[in-house]
């Protein structure tokens, strides 16, 4: 009997957390992050404010949880895109295609407001963003795989390791995304990032 009650309580808790998550997601889509309060989330979910803090330490933590799930779905999209590229395509062209895909997803799927909020939370360090920035992300695996392919085929300098190059590529993408956030809307994200990576490729080609 105690086990049944415990399981039922866990199920109810999971359902409540799901309602909070889904309510917050809809509110963040409709309104700016700063305009969405914990009270608005709990009201939409039909729970008390105290219940919110049983499941999340803060609105920031909930937002990062949402963004981490977005990142996971984006990585799945990047992986499918990468796997569908022609096997005989040069590593340089693959890298440019993947980078362009990343920009398209950031602009059209994530959006400026959502990305700006994420970068703000990163800079303030009020919550951990390791779930999005960690090196175990599928996106980083894709980038390292294509760079390693380029080195083995003799397209890129053998003196450079794929691991080192991956770190540089990821930092460049992150830096140019930040540039987009602070200079929006007067920054042509796609044009600037492709120009940057064409210059980078000139430096690493064998």
UniProtKB/TrEMBL annotation:
PROSITE patterns per the UniProt record, alphabetical: HTH_TETR_2 (PS50977)
UniProt signal peptide: none
GO terms assigned for molecular function: DNA binding
Record-linked PANTHER family: ACREF/ENVCD OPERON REPRESSOR-RELATED, ACREF_ENVCD OPERON REPRESSOR-RELATED
Presence of keyword Mitochondrion: no
Highest rank taxon of the organism: Bacteria
DNA-binding region(s) in UniProt: 37-56
HTH tetR-type domain ranges (all copies): 14-74
Official protein name in the record: Transcriptional regulator, TetR family
Pfam families, sorted: TetR_N
Transmembrane segments: none
Alphabetically ordered keywords of this record: DNA-binding
Record lineage: Bacteria, Bacillati, Bacillota, Clostridia, Eubacteriales
